[in-house]
Amino acid sequence: MTTPLSSLPENRQGHPRPRGTSWLGQLLRRLHFYAGIFVGPFILIAALSGALYAISPQIEKVVYADELTTSATGLALPLADQVTAATTYTGGAESISAVRPAPKPGATTRVMFDDPNLGESESRAIFIDPTTAEVKGDLTVYGTSGSLPLRTWVDQLHGSLHLGNFGRYYSEIAASWLGIIAVAGLCLWVMRARRARKATALLRPSMKHKGLRRTFSWHASVGVWAAIGMLFLSATGITWSQLGGDNVTKLRAALDWSTPAVSTELGGGSAESGGGSAGESDVGGHAGHEGHTGHEGHAGHGGTDASDTSGVDPADFDMTLAMARDINVNTGLVEILPPADDDSAWVVQEIQRSFPTEIDALAIDAETMEITDRVDFSDYGFASKLARWGVDLHMGTMFGLASQIVLVGLAIGIASMVVWGYVMWWQRRPKHDPSRNFGVTPVRGALANAHWWSVAAVVLSAVAIGVFLPMVGISVLGFLVVDGVLALWARGRQAR
Questions:
Q1: Strands annotated E in 267-414
Q2: 13-27, 177-191, 226-240, 286-300: the lowest-pLDDT one
């Protein structure tokens, strides 16, 4: 049974349109409009805080110059002396979780301790002058990158608005919808460009207001140039999300794309078989913006005196580092993790996230001086390498300052597009109706003008996206409710 033309949605001139014409453009325009209006604030906050995070390493170097650098010159003392100085300073009551030797002359060594009063992935770091063993600072550090308090604050603002796990839903909405908005906007631009070749005019005939044309031109131009970057930030940002990130982790596990981790079990176990592991844990983890849940298998040490924390001989730090240097640890950015117990191995791992990526890791039995496990970045699968590089690019560490500049420019562009979107909404307001402060919404009823197989494809796609990205599904339901309320309000207003 066919539907009469009188029951189909009308075009702008009030005439019914035949089924199957222009429905996709109408649907994308309405989706792009509603997502921009309601999700825009989340994307704006994420973009601005992301830009601040991108430049935070430079700010960190200035704010914490006293802790990060030293003016003393000369040969570096053994790590044993530096560790002893740090444990003497703390009183030996806290167990050592990791040691990061000074990566270059003029930098300090970090001796990190497990502090039960700190949060997840946080450690107490004592900064030691490697040439004099003088204590240069005492700060809380976070995650694999060793973020100091200022950058950690920015990180948590970007990821959760300092609202804990509940706040992470905001960033999940922003990351999930950013890609959808980018795709919808890019499709609309292509459709408009195709019409322009036929009509020899890029702008719609109805767009007569000069200011509106200018704003639209800025919004569209920046959107086209930034589309790839927006899709990249969306895809990588989802890996940190609360609900969608769990689905990404499950998908990677099902496809055997998980990141390998060095085993710390001395009994011959492995990370895959349930043994303890350390080093490069799954980069799709969800413990904040670092994707790092702390040093697995290295908590719970008890300590009694300054020279012997949890039975760990400070001299073993020098021994394990020297062994690792002889095998595959060839970068200055290194982290040494002491064993969790008598049945665990030491771990020496590279932590260089810039290009070329250096994150090789070794597990060492200090008693027998044998290598018990080894994971090289060259052994990673292609998908695991892409995941690692994607996270590092998202955080601006891959290519250093160049990455940071690109991320800041992209973030400013995204924030500008959000603002221009609201400006266009205001500029579209009916000038003859003073009671309307904002512009009209795109025409409803797009799917009513589509063939049944098109409707089925849209519904199935929406369900699939909603299942994989739950916050998208929830927000779409919210859009539908708001749209229904607005439709009823408009109908009542017309009746009056």
A1: 277-278, 334-337, 346-350, 361-365, 370-375
A2: 286-300
